[in-house]
Amino acid sequence: MQRNIKLTLEYDGTGFNGWQIQARHQRTVAGEIEKALKKIFRKNIRLIGSGRTDSGVHALGQAANFKTTSPMKPDQMRRALNANLPDDIAVLKVEEVLAGFHAQYSVRSKTYRYTILNRDVRGPLQRRYCLVYPYPLNLRRMKEEAKALVGRHDFRSFQAANPSRDEKATTVRTVRRVGITKKGDFIHIDIEADGFLYKMVRNIVGTLLEVGQGRLPKGSIRSILAQKDRALAGDTARPQGLTLVKVEY
Hints:
Blueprint: E1 3-11, H1 29-41, E2 48-49, E3 58-68, H2 74-84, E4 89-97, E5 109-117, E6 131-132, H3 139-146, E7 151-154, E8 172-183, E9 186-193, H4 200-212, H5 220-227, E10 242-248
Parallel strand pairs: 3-10, 5-6
Antiparallel strand pairs: 1-3, 1-4, 2-3, 5-9, 5-10, 7-8, 8-9
């Protein structure tokens, strides 16, 4: 009898060429997990992720699923996977789910967090997990502009060019929440949505940084959304500050 198994994963994206398996045998998160699955179950197993994370992007709660006829218990699978995975990937949870569950298509929402170290001295211990930004930022202005992102909009202006993208696919997404908080020198930008376009979060962050520096006037985010032109938004923020926090089903 075929079983559907869901994984909850944590990983440090620094040493990976993203989530998705690459044709040129580059090191990827999904590739390492599929290698471990093959070693455990003695056969090729296709892993389905909730979505792709780019090179250098981290995860605290990525989700994936696969099918197997193995009678192995979920907790045994978790231990076996962690014994066969590299140190920069951990399987936090393994659970058997309904046959119709699909890690990508069953998603209700995802939450990403972008972390900024806002000081003029680099952070040697945090450099893999945040963007060091040495310029003063007006958080009040950033929060005010971010309100325009909440709701159902066409986010074409915040989508990076992607050769593998289906040009006919919709660029409309629903952002449920944007939270901007500061603790000490750290600024966290949390975005929850029903889905994200290619590099959407990093492009939003890059634009909010320009807002925070006063480079963009009041009403800019709303205007950029309306014009659907990527050239009007800010630069793409560096990947190491981004973490996939959780996936909701």
